[in-house]
Amino acid sequence: MKKSFIIFMLSLFLGFTISETVFAIPAFARKYNMSCQTCHSPMPKLKSYGDEFAGNGFVLADKDAPRYFVDTGDESLSLIRDLPIAVRLEAHATYRTDKPEIGDFKTPYLVKFMSGGSLADNLAYYFYMYFDERGEVAGVEDAYIMFNNLFGSELDIYVGQFQISDPLFKREVRLTLEDYEIYKTKVGESNFNIAYDRGIMLTYGFDTGTDIMVEVVNGNGLSDADNEKLFDNDNNKNFFGRISQDLGEFLRVGAFAYTGKEFQNVNKFNFLENNMLMYGPDISISLGDKLELNAQYIQRTDEWNYASNNLSDKDVKTKGGLAELVITPNGDESKFYGVALFNWVESDLNELNYKTFTAHIGYMLRRNFRLVGEIKYDITNEYYQLGAGFITAF
Predict the structure, then answer these.
(1) pTM for the full model?
(2) Model confidence over 143-164: pLDDT tens digits?
(3) What b/e readout covers 316-351, taking b as 16+ CB neighbours within 10 angstroms?
(4) CATH dotted code for 3-71+82-393
(5) Which of 43, 282, 302, 389 has its CA 20 to 30 A from that of 269?
(6) Is the pLDDT score of 385 beyond 90?
(7) Number of helices (H) and strands (E), helices first, in the chain?
């Protein structure tokens, strides 16, 4: 390893290690005057208690927040006393072995403004906006209203924009800089993946440990509205369904399917039609609060009735998945934690092929400030990426 890289990484690590301690806590912790540890381990990864809190409309059933709403004397008005807000800041520096002598300061890598909370009984909201994401103002991503426990049942309805893959493994609360690549993959000229979209999501949980999720979305991501103020670019909707089952205390299995049709004008005489089907199983194994293994497999078929270039009148097969191991040696009291992540995408379109292995280690300087180090090996292109940084929320 070259001397310039060693100097670069050492100076970076020392700079982060002596950073000023952050004492502020995010909005939900402020509301209930409790530690981020209650819901996260480590932040932003959710514990089961945090999942329950989010699924309950950001309300704790066993803890009250009596001054959360203003007493206006109008029982039909729910007015939040102080708008709950929080900020997430993330910065990294990386070095790639296929680009010698180049060390990249990704500072900041993102600055995220978040707000969410209860609006009334069984009614909540959540949104966040990127002030800065990889050097650009990305705008609003998650933004939805949640109707919780409708009709006195376990039925929840989300309306707005969210990630289609949220019922699987949530990208936004992963611990690694490396993403879940198969969730973001778009095939050829298709707009379809299972990242962000606009629509409606219904979830229902049974006492047997069975969860059912159904989504209906536009199918064209977070594209801008057109001149007629329409977000959807055709008359089709996409459909997503998932079922999962808890098997004992430590095992959960699930399966999903996602299908849609899209039309795109290639020119004034021809259009592109794609019928897409995506499906696959997933599994999670948790050994107490010290080890968690998540795995996902996805099979995808794009049936093109017309397309330009090499996609004309043929099916395109794509498959892939991820496997993630998270280790917290002392549970939610762990200062150190580790993550191993394997990403895999294989397609008839060679440019989509992607295979990486990532090892990540973190140190919790505070509950809401963690130092991270990460090494990724790109198996497809045969290079390493090494990085270090910090992630905080306040």
Answers:
(1) 0.83
(2) 999 998 898 888 999 999 999 9
(3) bebbbbbbbebbbeeebebeebebebbbbbbbbeee
(4) 2.40.160.10
(5) 302
(6) yes
(7) 4, 16
